[in-house]
Amino acid sequence: MSKSAASLPQTATKRASPAKLAMDRMGLRRPVDLALHIPFRYEDETQVQRLSPELSGQPVQFLGVVVRCEVGFRPRRQLQVTVQDGEHKCLLRFFNFYGNQQKMMAVGRALRIRGDLKGSFFGLEMVHPAVKPAEEPVPHALTPVYPTTAGLPQAYLRKAILGGLGRCQWPRTVPAESWARLGVGEEWSLGRALQYLHQPPPDSRIAEIEDRTHPAWQRLKAEELLAQQLAQWRARQERDAQRAPRLLAPAQVLHNALLEQLPFALTGAQQRVVQEIAQDIGLAVPMNRLLQGDVGAGKTIVAALAACVCIEAGWQCALMAPTEILAEQHFQKMLQWLQPVLRGQGRQVAWLVGTQKKKERDAMLAAVASGEAALVVGTHALIQDSVAFHKLGLVIVDEQHRFGVEQRLTLRRKLSQRVAGEAQAQEPHMLMMTATPIPRTLAMTLYADLDVSILDELPPGRTPVVTRAIANSRREEVMHRIVKQVEAGRQAYWVCPLIEDSEALDLQSATEAYAQVCEALGQLPCESVLHAANPPMAALLHARLSSAEKKAIMAAFVAGHIGVLVSTTVIEVGVDVPNASLMVIEHAERFGLSQLHQLRGRVGRGAQASACVLLYGGPLGPIAKQRLQAMVQSNDGFELARIDLALRGPGEFLGARQSGAALLKFADIQEDEAVLDWARDEAPMIWARWPEMAQAHIDLWMGSKSDFLKA
Ligand code: ADP
Ligand code: MG
Fold this sequence. Notes:
It contains 23 helices and 22 strands.
């Protein structure tokens, strides 16, 4: 018997058919993948009824003999077949049909027919029923209907899955005592559960299968959650076995110098979190910490204070942001905060982005390699091959949810390789920051390897942003009100949505909005802020501008020269202009809840009262309506994240930032929280006592996916 046939890859066939390719695209490669592709519903072909007018209005399966088969033309071309069962007749209509179908339904043939029976003035009728020759045996199990894709016929997939199921062997990968603690009886082995779900007997309780409460489903969910918790436990062990530099700065020289020049005092939450981080990076085990704090909570200063410890300990710190605008802004802040002190020590703040001029870039790279650059701020240009750090001790990733899982993995791998010399054996500490809070259950499943710090207090003096949802038909009215306020000295953002897959359309809608704003302001649209004699009252910011142009626009906006900044979603993350107090989001119904909250977070950062207008177009669907309502009612990012998760489910919730590979297929972390708790408790024990089983279980369920859990 082979060790684990279930997890062996299938060898590629020589000439792959379109259906085979479609299966491949769906990730259905190994027999075990096929076996784990579960039907989403079932059809009951096991019962054969007698044709009768009393059954009309229901799905019916009956046996009948063809008494007439003709192609008719009224009201449109169709194949009309009349079949008889006992004293009753039924007319079958087919609007699309093939010659061989016509042959199969020739007069005199006996057929098994299944479809929705309708009674009309003319008698009984079925449109497009499923038809099989009567001699084909009636199935003994319910017929599974699988999720499929274009080019992959249900019948082909069904056969492939049955074949895969037959080839699978299920080694024992979970000790019996674990199952006993969960209370899922041994009678539901994985093999049996899958067999049952693919071919449920006719008497099975379909409702329980379809709502996933059946014991066979319970077993599947528990297996899956356990695999994931096992993988996370291992990731954590691996990390704990790694070495990192101990970053200690007992004198706190930099730290104190920075605090002294701040115009504000840290909040209690900021102080606590800075403490948590300092404690962690003082240990010889790499930190892996997620800092969650609502938009405007003040994460940047926390990052700077963490960098202070690292730099004072004699190591380099890297700060990575998802966009160039944000990287630039961080760079300016860090220069202002740290450069005065660093210069005295012959060290500096460097920065690296993709659009830099070669000369500047080379100078920066040299400073990074020599260690003269104590802090390096940048975009993902930081992880390119040409970048070599001297002694990298701490990596801070801002808006980490904007980086995909794969990018984060690369980051980790590359950064440990990018460190030269004797430091090579040591991993840098990692601090990730996000304003998109992750609900507890999700954090447990996806980020169990992370420690979490929470900034649960906003800086004092903030007035909550007042939010209104207004129909786009009142757009002009809104536009004029905004313009009046701007003329009175306030600053506003006007954000246009991303139009799926079309940068051009994107730009078009933003350009139109910009033209309207200019008209309302009584000025001409400005071609280039960079080359304008005076900064305009309004400017248009979008992704395709040169980075010098973007920089000039942001600088003029920060300085308060530009009153209205019309933009595509490039300003979504992180931008901090405290004087801006108005936010208009066009087609707000097209944004996700967390994105809306992020956008709104651009205002309400200063002491003055701020407002956010959600312009929506067209009749709203129920989900969009709930999203906008939630925005109007709540300013609390955690509350909104919970609502978002409930509205969309975890897959969608994480969609933008997770590749999906690490997501659960079967378990629902909200409904299955108890099973999740069980899996988390079992994982360390199984690893300790049965490491081979644990490994086999991960291989079986995750294949190569388990790597993603480390990101
Ligand atoms: P985010 O958490 O969204 O990244 P930022 O770090 O951009 O927030 O901070 C938002 C604004 O609040 C900034 O202008 C920052 O200078 C200011 N800020 C941060 N901490 C405090 C504080 N303790 N008191 C007053 N203002 C603060
Ligand atoms: Mg920020």
